[in-house]
Amino acid sequence: MPNRLARETSPYLQQHADNPVDWYPWGEDALRRAREQDKPILLSVGYSACHWCHVMAHESFEDAEVAAVMNALFVNIKVDREERPDIDQIYQTAHHLLTQRAGGWPLTMFLAPDGKPFFGGTYFPKAPRYNLPGFTGLLERVAAVYRTQRREIDEQNDELVKILGGTVPRAAQDPVEPDDRPIADARRELLAAFDPVHGGLGGAPKFPHPYEFDLLLRADGDARRATLLTLTRMAEGGIYDQLGGGFCRYSVDGEWLIPHFEKMLYDNGPLLRLYTDAWLLTRDPLYARVCEETAAWVMREMQAAAGGYCSSLDADAEGQEGKFHVWDRDEVAALLTEDEFRVAAGRYGLDGPPNFEQRHWHLHVARSTDAVAAAIDRPVADCEALLASARAKLHAARERRVHPARDDKILTSWNGLMIEGMAHAARVFDRPDWLDSARRALDFLRSSLWRDGRLLATHKDGVSHLNAYLDDHAFLLGALLEFLQAEFRRADLDWAIALADLLLERFEDRADGGFWFTSHDHEQLILRTKPGHDNATPAGNGVAALQLQRLGHLIGDPRYLAAAERTVRLFHGAAARQPGGFASYCRALSEYLEPPAIVMVRGPSAGLAEWSRALAAHYAPSTMTFVLPDRTEPLPAAMDKPPGAAVNAWVCRGVVCLPPMDRIAEVLREIGAAA
Fold first, then answer.
1. Cα 302 to chain center, whole Å?
2. Among 151, 166, 181, where does a domain finish?
3. What percentage of the chain's residues is helix, strand, coil (to nearest 5)?
4. For the chain, how many structural domains are there in total?
5. Which of 49, 63, 420, 660 counts the most CB atoms within 10 A of its CB?
6. Residue 602 in 3-state DSSP?
7. How far apart are CA 492 and CA 274, in angstroms?
């Protein structure tokens, strides 16, 4: 019989609905049972695309004997970290404090009935291996310790909660005036970790780090060169899907060759934006191709029929990691003509030894098309045509395979990141189809996740629920401000203002500054976090500060600027101590120190398209451009520049606006745009 998880909306929880484990979702029912029976809680946190989550589920949670031990000794709670990032943040931090090791997923934590953790780990095998204890034996030992050492556990828990509370930033007793040193130090720290051969930061496993490289791209010299090398190596590597577009979550090696095959929405939105900016700076056709293919993948595989973007694609297919993506050489040869195979084999490394589990090939760019052409003595143009036909055939053949499962829940925060990336790329590349995709997603969020002036966090199968978090509000605000630059709709500006007001009303810590991750009326947990450090997604406080500043300057509202300033001041000390982890904060700090340029273009509709295309075709990362037709509804006073008989542009910084300009070149010079 299905357990309680069958009633949940999360695909990850539903994956465990047929387990023999007596799972509970997080909630009062589970916590009450633990208190009433005086049982410890086994908390298991994961997500649907997680390979090692699947492994632990198959080994232990689907095993009747293991489940019997779990049910006898614990109240078992399963959590989707994507739906409940508030819970995940708390217990990942607790795991680090308890074990002095990095966390991850699956996260396995043991809690007292009051929710305080006393032991934990990540993946545990059913039988001892990998220098890890077997799960059944571990369960029995943890339960025995809980029964026999309660006083010690209670003392440890009380101390741990105090330490957790100490991780929440507070206003400095002797505050310093914010300066640009964290930005310069962050760039130095990131460059010190840069791999000059393969690009990226550090060694294996290697993650994309789009926010850190965005910070480097905004500089010049070595910082920009490091970013461009990284983007090139990633685009040529196996972390990028050479047939279908889109990036996997990370590479298991230091050369970007073999990925962990899951694809996450939250990676691809920021990477789409970053590759767009790299193309603006270089006009490198490789970056344009990545944008084209990634946008096509998003629309083809990640956008639900109703408009929202789905969360992720699994690493596994038919129970095997990477099975959907990897190839047998004979299979490729059978699908292609002899000439196509010669080109594809040289291009993608099929003429070398297998690179996946010593028997399959995962495609990556092994040689340039020029090198392949020289090796087989064919014109480059012929090889490019043969490669294009080979890719089309291989992609069509792969489409006939069993696809990885798609987690089709729609998360407000991750949709915000993807809408921002799609809208930015659409504006730069002048792609109405990409803009339409972003518009459909934005309109879906408004119709399905915006209820009575409040935002919800997740939607699936017609059900929207869970109080939205800081990230939902901040990322969506950023998406709206980006979309408004591609297509100005007054309703979107009104929505951005409403979201900003909610940030101030329901999330801001007016005493110390910054924004809580959960709203003031959220469920009370053992810790209320206030994150400033970037992780797989940017820190909500950095994004909130940046976007509130931008909106405040745009419409002339000092409340938003003041809240952003309090946030910048709160996190300045932490960013100074650990600058490499505060890339999103550094962007907010940069625009706090020097407000962004805001370009407002007014005039007859017939002349606006030329201006819009021209201004979008230049790299100006600290500039916002709004094209406002004559028919625009009444605007906030700061935006309400008078339209004339011809197109004019107003360039404003802070409270200062220059006289109107009627030549595009003059505007570009003023904002320092790079071609």
1. 14
2. 166
3. 50, 15, 35
4. 3
5. 49
6. strand
7. 24
Q: Are residues 161 and 200 in the same domain?
A: no
Q: Are residues 155 and 206 in the same domain?
A: no
Token reading at 421: 């990336």
165: left (phi over 0), alpha (psi -120 to 50) or beta: alpha
Dump pLDDT digits (tens) for 53-66.
Answer: 999 999 999 999 99
Asked, for residue 371, whether it belongs to a domain, the answer is: yes
HEC string of 278-299 equals HHHHHCCHHHHHHHHHHHHHHH
Q: Does 148 reside within a domain?
A: yes
- 3-class DSSP assignment, residue 3: coil
Residues 224 and 368 in one domain: yes
Q: Is residue 113 part of a domain?
A: yes
Joined tokens for residue 140: 């029995």
Asked if residue 200 and residue 157 are part of one domain, the reply reads: no
CA angle 373, 376, 381 (to 5 degrees): 30
Residues 197 and 162 in one domain: no
Burial environment of residue 220 by CB neighbours within 10 A (0 to 12, 13 to 18, 19 or more): exposed
Per-residue pLDDT of 95-122, as tens digits, reads: 999 999 989 999 999 999 999 999 999 9
CB 658 within 8 A of CB 598: no
Residues 158 and 203 reside in one and the same domain: no
* DSSP secondary structure of 526-562: S------S--SS--HHHHHHHHHHHHHHHHT-HHHHH
Q: 665: domain range?
A: 595-675
Q: Are 425 and 272 in contact (CB under 8 A)?
A: yes
Residue 273 and residue 428: Cα distance in Å, rounded?
10
Q: Are residues 36 and 148 in the same domain?
A: yes
Residue 491 lies inside a defined structural domain of this protein: no
- pLDDT bin (cut points 50, 70, 90) of residue 606 is confident
Phi and psi at 451, nearest 5°, equal -125, 115
Q: Count of alpha carbons within 13 Å of 341, Cβ hemisphere only? A: 12
pLDDT (average), residues 330-346: 98
CATH number at residue 99: 3.40.30.10
Number of residues assigned to the chain: 675
Supply 420's token pair: 């921002």
